[in-house]
Structure formats: structure tokens, C-alpha cells
């Protein structure tokens, strides 16, 4: 395998040199040396800035915690910590990850009600208000900000307002949007991110921004899981005791990755994602390829999903073999009908999109 390969996948994304170097540095013992806790607290402070960047929801402060595990651990921990037996959970869905939340809910004894809209369309606040009126009370609602497999970004603010009016706690999977586009963190009770998407660090860490309301609910929920329990993390950094030995090298890598974002400025980072996505869609249109979401305003700035009816695997292979560029196909039933170009994190650059689209044009032509 050469290392010139361009990996335009929607995560894991390219890890910049300074992040890889930070991971190779000696680290203090995460259980015993206070310096480690200082570094962890400094990282969560910086992550709070990433979570709040461009968020105009005027929310109160959220506590950010970093868990040692892939993004899925964040999703599971949120459900395990907030949902107990018999709790009613509204799972809003317009895609695979939206549906997937209901599996976690049922594993932890909750009752999941899936409210699904067609996958080519965005989630809709009116539908949510209607479901809440017709189906009675819910304790928690789950939703996905960017549905990575279909390239849609859901506008969540209106939905989060409706949920707040009904006193329903919100859990949002922002794994593939955090650090690439503004997230309405101030209206979300548990907002989950991960290291390997727009943050451009290697897979291995999940981040959660948690509201006071959510911390309070966790005290009342009897969570059978130990590893997937958020509650101890509320005080872990201050009391200098983590529930398990933390992933020190990964944390140092994420710290360097977040430094890059803050040095560049989140506003510029977000603009870079918008520019890359816009150029990707323009080039696709020139090639006669349509984005999967029906409405362009619902297309994510972090990943573009193109409808390619039955040709995704073949195109993916040709682009890899002829141009050494890795793309992703769709997932599940849509595997062969969607070709995905990740322009997230370090890869959200117009020149990389041009190179990728030149390669797609070549294999199509
Ligand atoms: C990548 C991703 C996750 C993390 O899950 P993996 O499939 O294990 O990478 C969770 N949610 C979304 C929306 C993602 O894009």
C-alpha cells in the first residue's frame, strides 16, 4: 500500500502529520500523574469551543467529556445512561443511524417509537410536533445531525425547540458534523462526536457534550453498563479519577487535531467544508450525477452522496485502481446505489475534491 493514496471517505479521515507526531510522544501515566488530568481538562475546554462554534442557540454551558472508545460508544453510553426499563424514546429517523438508535434503546429496556421520514428528505419539526401530540409523552428523543450514509444534514433547531416545549430530553449523533459545520449544542442534552471524522484524529475516542438536565436524569436511571456509563465522567476530571485507564496517545492526538482547528479558526474551517461540498456537487452535476437528498439545502457540507444506480462498487474499485483514491459506497440496501465522497476534516479542500472528481470523470468517461 502506498501512502500517497487519497482517502476521500466519510471517516476515518486523513490524520495530519502533527497529530501523528503528538501520538508518538511519551505520555504521563493516566492513572497516576496529575499532569495527565491537566492535559485532559485543557482538551475538554478546547472541545467546548469546537462544540459551541457557530452555535447561535444561545445555550448555557455544556460539560464536554471524552470517552475511550469509537463513536458508537458515545451513542451507547448516551442511551445506557439516560434510558431505563419502560422509558419511552422517540427515535427520529431519515436514515440508517437514525434507525439504529432504536436498537440501543431496546437493549437497555426502553420502548422505542421510530418516527421515520423518507431517506431523501430531511427531518421535519412539524412531523415531530404531530407525533408528540398523537403518541403521548416521551422521556427522551434521539436524532442524527448528519446522516453520513445518505449525505443529509438535518436542520435540528426547530425540532429541538418542539422537544424542549414537551420536556423531552434530546440525544444527537453529531459524529460526522462536529468540527465541520455548526452544531446547535446549546439546545441538545447529549451531543455526541468522534475523533475520526471532521476532527481528523484516528478512531478511538468519542466526545459528549452534556447538559445539567441530562446529568440529573442520569442519577435517576439505573444503568447496568459499566464501560458505557457517562455518569462518573461528570466529576472524573476534577476528582482525578477516570473509570478506566484513559487512551493517552489518542487523547494527545486529538488535542493536536483540535489545536489545528482552533488555530485555523472554526469559521474558516466551516467555510472550507462548504466550499469543498459546493464544488463537489457542481462537478457531479457536470457529470450528470445527482446528490441523493432531493433538496440541495439538505446536502451535508461534510460528505456528498451521489445516486449512481447499481454502479457504486464498480466505480469505487475503478477510482481506487486507476487513481489511488479511496471512496465509499452506500450502506445496507443502498450499498450499490450510492457513491460517497467524504470531504471532511483535513480532506475538506477544493483541490482534493477536484482531484477526486477528475478521477470519477475519467472512470465514467
Ligand atoms: C461514523 C459514524 C458513527 C460512528 O460509527 P462507525 O460506523 O463505527 O464509524 C456514528 N454515527 C454517524 C452518523 C457516523 O457517521
Automatic annotation (TrEMBL):
Annotated spans, Disordered: 1-34
Domain of life, per lineage: Archaea
Keywords: Aminotransferase, Pyridoxal phosphate, Pyruvate, Transferase
Transferase recorded as keyword: yes
Family as reported in the entry's similarity comment: Belongs to the class-V pyridoxal-phosphate-dependent aminotransferase family.
Name recorded for this polypeptide: Serine-pyruvate aminotransferase/archaeal aspartate aminotransferase
Coiled coil: none
Species per Swiss-Prot/TrEMBL record: Natronococcus occultus SP4
Gene Ontology terms describing biological process: glycine biosynthetic process, by transamination of glyoxylate
Gene3D superfamilies, per the entry: Aspartate Aminotransferase, domain 1, Type I PLP-dependent aspartate aminotransferase-like (Major domain)
Span of domain Aminotransferase class V: 139-330
GO terms of molecular function: alanine-glyoxylate transaminase activity; L-serine-pyruvate transaminase activity
Cofactor(s) required for function per UniProt: pyridoxal 5'-phosphate
Amino acid at each position: 500500500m502506498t501512502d500517497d493514496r487519497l482517502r476521500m471517505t466519510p471517516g476515518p479521515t486523513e490524520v495530519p502529520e502533527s497529530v501523528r507526531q503528538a501520538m508518538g510522544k511519551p505520555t504521563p501515566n493516566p492513572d497516576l500523574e496529575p499532569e495527565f488530568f491537566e492535559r485532559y481538562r485543557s482538551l475538554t475546554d478546547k472541545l467546548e469551543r469546537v462544540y459551541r462554534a457557530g452555535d447561535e442557540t444561545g445555550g448555557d454551558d455544556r460539560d464536554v467529556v471524552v470517552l475511550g472508545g469509537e463513536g458508537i460508544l458515545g451513542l451507547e453510553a448516551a442511551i445506557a445512561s439516560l434510558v431505563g426499563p419502560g422509558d419511552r424514546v422517540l427515535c427520529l429517523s431519515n436514515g440508517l443511524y437514525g434507525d439504529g438508535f432504536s436498537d440501543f434503546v431496546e437493549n437497555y429496556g426502553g420502548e422505542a417509537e421510530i418516527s421515520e421520514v423518507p431517506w431523501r428528505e430531511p427531518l421535519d419539526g412539524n412531523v415531530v410536533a404531530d407525533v408528540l401530540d398523537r403518541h403521548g409523552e416521551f422521556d427522551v428523543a434521539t436524532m442524527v445531525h448528519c446522516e453520513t450514509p445518505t449525505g443529509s444534514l438535518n436542520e435540528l433547531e426547530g425540532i429541538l425547540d418542539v422537544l424542549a416545549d414537551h420536556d423531552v430530553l434530546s440525544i444527537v449523533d453529531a459524529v460526522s458534523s462536529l468540527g465541520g459545520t455548526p452544531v446547535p449544542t446549546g439546545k441538545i442534552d447529549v451531543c455526541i462526536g468522534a475523533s475520526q471524522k471532521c476532527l481528523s484524529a484516528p478512531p478511538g475516542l468519542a466526545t459528549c457534550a452534556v447538559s445539567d438536565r441530562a446529568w440529573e436524569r442520569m442519577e435517576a436511571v439505573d444503568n447496568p453498563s459499566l464501560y458505557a456509563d457517562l455518569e462518573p465522567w461528570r466529576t472524573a476530571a476534577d476528582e482525578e479519577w477516570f473509570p478506566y485507564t484513559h487512551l493517552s496517545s489518542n487523547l494527545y492526538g486529538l488535542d493536536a487535531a483540535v489545536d489545528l482547528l482552533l488555530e485555523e479558526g472554526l469559521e474558516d474551517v466551516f467555510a472550507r467544508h462548504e466550499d469543498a461540498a459546493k464544488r463537489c456537487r457542481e462537478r457531479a452535476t457536470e457529470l450528470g450525477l445527482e446528490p441523493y437528498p432531493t433538496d440541495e439545502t439538505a446536502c451535508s457540507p461534510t460528505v456528498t452522496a451521489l445516486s449512481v444506480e447499481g454502479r457504486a462498487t464498480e466505480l469505487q474499485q475503478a477510482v481506487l485502481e486507476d487513481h489511488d483514491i479511496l471512496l465509499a459506497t452506500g450502506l445496507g440496501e443502498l450499498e450499490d446505489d450510492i457513491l460517497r465522497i467524504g470531504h471532511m476534516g483535513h480532506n475538506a479542500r477544493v483541490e482534493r475534491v477536484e482531484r477526486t472528481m477528475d478521477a470519477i470523470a475519467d472512470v465514467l468517461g
